[in-house]
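Moderator note: this is an archived Q&A kept for reference. The question asked for a predicted structure of one protein chain; the sequence and the answer are reproduced below.
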Amino acid sequence: MLGAIFVVSGARAVTQPDQLAGRAKKVTDRLAPLIERVHPRLPTQARTLVQLNGAAQLAAGTLLVSHRFRRPAALVLVGTLIPTTLAGHPFWTHEDPVERRNQMTHFLKNLGLLGGLVLAAGDTEGRPGLRWRTGHAVESAQRSLHRRAKTARREIRLARRAAGVGRRLPG
């Protein structure tokens, strides 16, 4: 369910980028110098970046819906949602109280989606995560070492008794 909105909005951005490019221009103009530093041949036009962002949302949303590569897909969607939210719903720039409230509602909706994506990115579906597995392996190794040390001490004590070593001489 979480991925469905990204499939729809991503498809819209790919097929109708001009509707979104105007609002996105404020953000893409700020990102253009950074993109050019990464590689001078990468696109920096608002329309193209809207389409690329939409394609990423469409692909990652589809993966999320289809339960394939859910965690990486959720992380990709987190990365696409941040510029989308900043470009699409800058409520702080609106003077009209009704429009400001409307944009704030959409901004907060996207913030809620972001929270859901963060949860999806961290979800291990009931299977132990890497952190738990690592901690469990360390605890298991510590218990094993403790048992081996205890066994070695007992064997040394038995060997000393058998050899008659360690008895105190009368003094």
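Archived answer notes: The helical segments are 4-15, 18-38, 46-65, 70-88, 97-122, 130-163.
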